[in-house]
Write a structure and sequence with these properties.
single chain, 437 residues, alpha+beta, Rossmann fold, Uridine Diphospho-n-acetylenolpyruvylglucosamine Reductase, domain 3, Phenylalanyl-tRNA Synthetase, Chain B, domain 3, 6-stranded mixed beta sheet, 5-stranded antiparallel beta sheet, 13 helices, 38% helix, globular
Length: 437
């Protein structure tokens, strides 16, 4: 019988957010946690993202909600209403982890657990070898990732998918199968269907060899990083790379310095960065142009300015706050939003709403990757990123600017900047007036 006690050192009263899809892997993880819940007095929150691309998605969300009620677990969910123009899997992952991060902070949890297993690790390592990466990237993903105020934990990494399916069968664990996991158009699925079966036919315990390989690379990377830190301290100041000093370093150390800088934006998701990206960055750094830039995945920009080089965020959100609005809210940008009874003001600092048009509660949060709003008086939607650009909002202000959304994550107002289709004219019927001070 598989047990989490042997996979991770739990402590009494741990608060754990579980990223759960309702699939066989995540449902096995949830069932294992339930079996030790009382032993450690665990506080468990199930976090589910409805990707809204399959008809079964809503049925799965309903199933999880009922499952949590039956097992006395908290349930948090969100629906991805729309996707931007980015790669679907990258964007979905970004939205998913932003949501998980917000739930971790909402409950002050100390762990986010996901059901990544040994097969997932094998697929990731193979994909990164083909794409090109560095030692950290080739290692796949870590079992434990330190996010400063909490940890991401993948306790099932020593098990295979078949181990978890057998566990579900023996324990009568109900789950749903995502039909998209069988489609060959997705790269990971092709590795899963054609490459892994061959490797397992050579050695049915091959996943343990990949785990050993991953740990070996992590250890090597840790050692090299200790050496690289001296060069990093010498070349980087306040996030800026001094190009003259950088060019004096060994070519291998140069790459490690760049990956170190990229780590702030991609953390353990280095599958988004490959050798071609590093080559582009190196060419940019060595360019004779004084000012130039390169676009990288997930809206990260590498920018050269004379003798300095820096990576900057474009639209990725720092999810640093989420405020459920009642009558008054003080915001991180030193402004506030309050509920008022009357005003003749019709500027973008005022928003008039009709209760029946929106879903409660109203929440105030920063922007998120892919955010779009149905702008008042305009057909279709507009990216929040473009609204900020049009309004000439400084880049350093965008990550903390308040976005007002309803319970379905519909953007109903960008205070001080733009109103949505939900805003009512003074002459129309409304029962809520919000003011941005």
């Amino acid at each position: 019988m598989l047990s989490l006690d042997k996979c991770f050192e739990f402590k009494k009263n741990d608060k754990i957010v579980v990223g759960c899809s309702a699939g066989p892997d995540s449902m096995a993880l949830v069932d294992m946690l339930l079996k030790i819940k009382n032993k450690y007095n665990l506080f468990i929150i199930i976090a589910h993202v409805n990707h809204n691309v399959r008809r079964e998605s809503y049925e799965e969300a309903d199933f999880l909600n009922e499952y949590c009620i039956e097992n006395n677990l908290l349930f948090e969910s969100m629906i991805i209403e729309e996707y931007g123009d980015d790669n679907f899997h990258n964007e979905a992952r970004n939205i998913r982890y932003n949501f998980f991060d917000s739930i971790v902070h909402k409950y002050d949890a100390n762990y986010l657990m996901t059901a990544h297993h040994g097969d997932d690790l094998m697929e990731t390592i193979l994909m990164r070898i083909v794409r090109g990466s560095n030692l950290r990237g080739y290692s796949g993903f870590k079992k434990i990732v330190d996010m400063n105020d909490y940890k991401i934990v993948r306790p099932l990494v020593s098990f295979t998918k078949s181990d978890l399916e057998e566990y579900d069968k023996l324990n009568n664990v109900r789950y749903y199968i995502d039909s998209s996991n069988s489609k060959d158009k997705y790269t990971r699925n092709r590795y899963r269907k054609y490459v892994l079966p061959f490797l397992k036919s050579e050695d049915k315990m091959v996943h343990n060899k990949f785990l050993k390989f991953s740990n070996l690379l992590c250890d090597a990377d840790k050692f090299i990083e200790s050496i690289t830190q001296i060069s990093i301290s010498n070349c980087i100041s306040k996030g800026k790379l001094n190009i003259d000093k950088f060019l004096l370093e060994d070519s291998y150390i140069q790459k490690e310095i760049l990956y170190y800088m990229l780590g702030e934006f991609y953390q353990d998701d280095l599958i988004l960065i490959n050798d071609s990206h590093i080559d582009l960055i190196n060419k940019l750094i060595r360019s004779k142009k004084a000012n130039c830039f390169v676009n990288l995945p997930n809206n990260v920009i590498g920018r050269k300015n004379y003798n300095f080089f820096v990576f900057v965020r474009d639209t990725e959100v720092i999810s640093s706050y989420e405020i459920e609005f009642d009558r008054y809210a003080m915001l991180p940008n030193k402004h506030s939003i309050e509920l008022i009874d009357y005003t003749t003001n019709n500027s973008n600092n005022i928003c008039r709403l009709k209760s029946s048009d929106i879903h409660f509660p109203i929440t105030i949060r920063p922007r998120r990757l892919g955010d779009k709003m149905k702008v008042k008086g305009m057909n279709g939607t507009k990216k929040v990123k473009d609204i900020f650009i049009d309004s000439k909002i400084a880049l350093n202000e965008r990550d903390s600017w308040p976005i007002v959304v309803d319970a379905l994550n519909n953007i109903i107002w960008i205070p001080g900047i733009k109103k949505s289709k939900f805003d009512k004219k003074i002459s129309e019927d409304y029962d809520i007036i919000l003011k941005y001070n």
